[in-house]
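wait is this the right file?? whatever heres the structure
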C-alpha cells in the first residue's frame, strides 16, 4: 500500500487546527496534565472538534511538537544561515529562535523522536547550526580548534538560560546580542 501526502485542510479547518494548537500550547504550558476538554474550552471549540482532528491526547501533542518544530526551522531559515555574514546570521537566527521558543515552550520541550517529522526537523536545525558555526570559525570568530558540536550545545544552553532567566524582560534582539557576545567572547573583559 502506498503512502500519500495528507490532504490539505480547508481554510476554516486550518484555522480551527491552528486555534487548537495555540490553545494547547497555552494550557499545557500552565498544566502539562490538562485534559482535551480543557484544551477545547481554551480553543473555543467543541471537544468533538479536537477528537475529529486528533485521535488522542498524544496525537495532539505530536502535532503540537511538529508545528513548533516547523516554526523553529523557519526561524532559522529566516536568519539566512547560508548567505548572511556569519555574525549577522547568528544574531538573526538567535533573535528569531528566542521568539519561537518563548511562544512554544511546552511543545519544544517535548523530546524529539529522530524517527518522526519533528525529530527530523530538529536534526536539520542542528546541521544548520553547525554550518553557521563552521562559517564563523572560517571567519576567525571561533577558534579553529573548537569542537563545533560542543559550541552548538553551549549556544543552545545560552538560549535556554536566557529564556528561563530573562527577569529584566529584555527583547529578543537584546538577548541575542548577549548570547552571541557570550558565545564568541565568554565572560572575560572585552578586547
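ok assuming it is, sequence goes like this
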Amino acid at each position: 500500500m502506498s503512502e500519500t501526502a495528507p490532504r490539505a485542510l480547508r481554510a476554516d479547518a486550518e484555522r480551527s487546527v491552528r486555534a487548537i494548537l495555540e490553545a494547547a500550547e497555552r494550557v499545557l504550558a500552565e498544566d502539562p496534565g490538562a485534559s482535551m476538554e480543557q484544551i477545547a474550552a481554551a480553543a473555543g471549540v467543541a471537544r468533538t472538534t479536537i477528537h475529529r482532528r486528533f485521535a488522542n491526547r498524544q496525537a495532539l501533542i505530536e502535532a503540537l511538537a511538529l508545528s513548533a518544530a516547523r516554526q523553529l526551522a523557519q526561524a532559522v531559515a529566516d536568519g539566512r544561515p547560508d548567505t548572511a555574514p556569519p555574525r549577522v546570521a547568528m544574531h538573526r537566527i538567535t533573535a528569531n529562535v528566542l521568539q519561537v521558543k518563548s511562544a512554544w515552550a511546552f511543545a519544544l520541550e517535548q523530546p524529539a523522536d529522530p524517527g518522526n517529522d519533528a525529530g527530523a526537523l530538529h536534526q536539520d536545525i542542528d546541521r544548520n547550526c553547525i554550518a553557521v558555526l563552521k562559517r564563523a570559525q572560517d571567519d576567525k570568530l571561533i577558534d579553529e580548534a573548537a569542537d563545533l558540536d560542543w559550541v552548538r550545545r553551549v549556544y543552545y544552553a545560552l538560549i535556554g538560560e536566557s529564556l528561563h532567566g530573562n527577569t529584566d524582560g529584555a527583547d529578543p534582539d537584546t538577548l541575542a546580542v548577549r548570547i552571541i557576545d557570550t558565545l564568541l567572547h565568554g565572560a572575560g573583559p572585552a578586547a
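The chain has two domains: 1-54, 62-185. so i think its the right one actually
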